[in-house]
Amino acid sequence: MTVAAVQRPPKVMRQASAEGVRLSLSGDWTLVASQHLENEGRRIVDEARRDRMVAIDLSAVSQLDTAGAWLINRARHDLARRDIAVALEHVRPEYLTLLEETHYRAFEAPARPRLNLVFALLSDLGESAVDALREFYRGVSFLGEFMASMIYVATHPQRFRFTSLVAQIELIGFRSVPIIVLINVLVGGIVAQQGIFQLLKFGASSYTVSLIGILVLRELGVLLTSIMIAGRSGSAITAELGSMKMREEIDALLVMGLSPIEVLIAPRVLGLIISLPILTFIADMAALFGGMVVSWWYGGISPVAFASLLKDAIALHTFMVGIIKAPFMALVIGLIASMDGLATKGSAESLGRQVTSSVVKSIFMVIVMDGLFAVFFASIDY
Amino acid sequence: MTNSSTTLNGALQPRPNRDIIISVRDLVVGFGDKTIMKGLNLDVYRGEVLGFVGGSGQGKSVLTRAILGLVPTRGGAIRIFGQDRDALGPIERRALEQRWGVLFQNGALFSGLTVKQNIQMPMRETRELSQPLMDELAMLKLELVGLGSDAADKFPSELSGGMVKRAALARALALDPELVFLDEPTSGLDPISAAEFDELIGTLQQTLGLTVFMVTHDLDSLYSICDRVAALAEGRVIASGPLETLLASDHPWLRAYFHGVRGGRLSAARVEQKDEEWKPAPTTP
């Protein structure tokens, strides 16, 4: 037997007989014929619907599968509904069971609730509002749980998983250094270049150094690092926890009397909180370096001059503003990533959705937090 | 006791009167420096239910995957429907793959699609059918495997273990294949569901004229629906033939398998009631 191509396409032949009409079916009545099979199935009804008696002769059918049998049965049903007597003739015994198993039955489509457009729109709006509130509530309660387990760990330090913490710091902190250095050198250089070009118009190109120093240390260093880490480590945490949730590993921890927050989430979030300030420091240095090289190249500001101008432009608090923000950014990224990971449902699609939502939410929250800090530092005049 | 058409401890002799649907010759499969199949020979005849047994870790799943082309082979030939699988071009290969259906051990239903969409997936991708007909066929397949229409719009994560198996079987049967691979179809099912599933496979095999290649550990399945049983050990098929042949074999592994604590209980019960229809023992209230 070779590959069953449509060698014998299904066919319906009509012959008028004494009592009514005789339809001879021939060929392969199988799904291989696809469209063709469906059309021939419909033709049985079309050919016979003006008659009173129909005999369907299956003697020349070379192959029959469930789809073919179903179409024949459906045609019989349609004809019977028009009060046409249908008889099957010359059915091979092996087709008989198949025809019996695929006897016609109506499959009622599940009723789909029909809403009018305005109602649907309003209900969608309400749903998303409630969802947003619920999300916020979950976030706050998750933060509470995390804090409670931190306090527990602080009082029971022997319960804390230091090995896991070190592994996370390596994964989140150490392995991100190259990419963080790279993007910050580039951004520092770009800011310096634009600063020189624009400030040169006022003959104030030496102020570029102040621009770079303050912008990088206060905002850009921590912001770029946080966004990078949200994309790089936040997504990894969500995916990891999400697949653990799908494979019931989280449930396994729970029934062993272990808290997933303590075992899985605390090391990750703490790892982020420790890594992010260090990475921010590295990012600051890299951006200043990039700015210095470009200032020398485009503005003729030598590294020595750059250093002394920088010393005048910034103070310790400029640097501290950036660093203070880092652990808070880390906490936000870690909590959102863990929360979204644990919210994963059973399907692969849901995991993908959670990872996307985790990254989008953390980047959004990082920027919102940065704005709040800007307002806060301005109001305390720091 | 030995049937003339089967031999123990060796290659199968061809049966000229029956169509061979899968023929595996001198198959060698290995990973790294470990060789799992060392010159394995196996034949599956058209229209039979072949039960394939073997100890855990002996490579039953590896053999299934090698036949399906999911695991690279190191040597030997696999012929399916009379065609050498390795010599086929991509188009013939695809045509071949449409003639078999596979039930994976854990169902492997697409988690992002509903049960109905899962069943329609092969139809949608390889055939041109109208949506109403595909809906009807999917529902028909669901009914054939014993699932109600309420399961049609559920996602795989909302199904119980037995329902997943049934839905996966419905998907395997979507294109009306001639050959069906079942990887431990009754594992993880309770004895009642397992017996129902066996019966279902038997009925479908009769109705649709299927050839079934079934990897199983379930002694009940072997007794109730398998026409022939092949046993895998030491990287090759150590015996194959009707169950009685294997029961009579004195290969140590087969003896341990069929006459061990669990197997022994069953085979004793079967031998006693060999001619009657086997019924579960009545439960005392």
List keywords for this structure.
heterodimer, A: 382 residues, Transcription Regulator spoIIAA, 4-stranded mixed β-sheet, 12 helices, 8% strand, B: 285 residues, alpha/beta, 6-stranded mixed β-sheet, 10 strands, globular, disordered N terminus
What is the quaternary state of this protein? Answer: heterodimer
Number of strand segments of chain B = 10
**Termini Cα gap of chain B:** 41 Å
Widest sheet: strand ordering of chain B: 6-7-8-3-9-10
Provide the structure class of chain A. alpha/beta
Helix content of chain B: 25-40%
Rough shape of chain B?
Answer: globular
Order of H and E elements of chain A? EEHEHEHHHHHHHHHH
Note the gap between the termini of chain A: 85 Å
Strand order of the largest sheet of chain A: 1-2-3-4
Computed structural class of chain B = alpha/beta
Helix count of chain B, per DSSP?
Answer: 10
Tell me, rounded to a whole number, the average pLDDT of chain A.
89
Arithmetic mean pLDDT of chain B: 81
Largest sheet of chain A: 4 strands, mixed
Percent of sequence in beta strands of chain A = 5-15%
If you had to describe this structure to a student in words, what would you say it looks like?
The complex is a heterodimer of chains A (382) and B (285). In chain A, 70% of the residues lie in helices and 8% in strands. Chain A has 382 residues and is of the alpha/beta class. Chain A has 2 domains: 11-101, STAS domain (Transcription Regulator spoIIAA, 2-Layer Sandwich), CATH 3.30.750.24; 143-379, no CATH class. Chain A has a 4-stranded mixed beta sheet with strand order 1-2-3-4, with helices on one face. In chain A, strand 1 (11-16) and strand 2 form a beta hairpin. In chain A, helix 9 crosses helix 11 (316-342) and helix 11 packs antiparallel against helix 12. Chain B is α/β, with parallel strands linked by helices. A 6-stranded mixed beta sheet of chain B has the order 6-7-8-3-9-10, with helices on both faces. A 4-stranded antiparallel beta sheet of chain B has the order 2-1-4-5, with helices on one face. Chain B is globular and about 55 Å long. The model of chain B is unreliable at 1-16 (pLDDT under 50). Chains A and B meet through helix 2 and helix 3 of A and helix 2, helix 4 and helix 6 of B.
